[in-house]
């Protein structure tokens, strides 16, 4: 049954590294901007989401 443990390690280690890197990326973004960016970051990449801004045209 050693192969079950090997398969678990193959699945668990990359997943753990992914969440560690994501947390590190989010933490760096929050430190850089000096604020909580919970609703501004993409939850899958940790990068800032693109938000379209509407430019008001003066008439």
In whole angstroms, the N-to-C terminal distance is: 75 Å
The helix content is 40-55%
Q: What's the quaternary structure here? A: single chain
Order of helices and strands: H
What is the radius of gyration computed over CA atoms, rounded to a whole number of angstroms?
19 Å
Structural class of the helices, strands and pairings?
mainly alpha
Instruction: Count up the domains.
Output: 1
Please tell me what the overall shape is: elongated
Q: Strand tally, please?
A: 0
Beta-strand percentage? under 5%
> Which spans have pLDDT < 50 for at least 5 consecutive residues?
none
Largest beta sheet, briefly? Answer: none
Q: Round the mean pLDDT to the nearest integer and report it.
A: 81
Tally of individual helices: 1
């Amino acid at each position: 049954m050693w192969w079950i443990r090997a398969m678990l390690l193959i699945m668990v280690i990359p997943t753990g590294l992914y969440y560690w890197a994501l947390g590190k990326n989010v933490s760096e973004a929050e430190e850089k901007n000096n604020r909580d960016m919970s609703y501004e970051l993409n939850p899958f990449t940790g990068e800032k989401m693109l938000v379209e801004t509407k430019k008001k045209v003066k008439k």
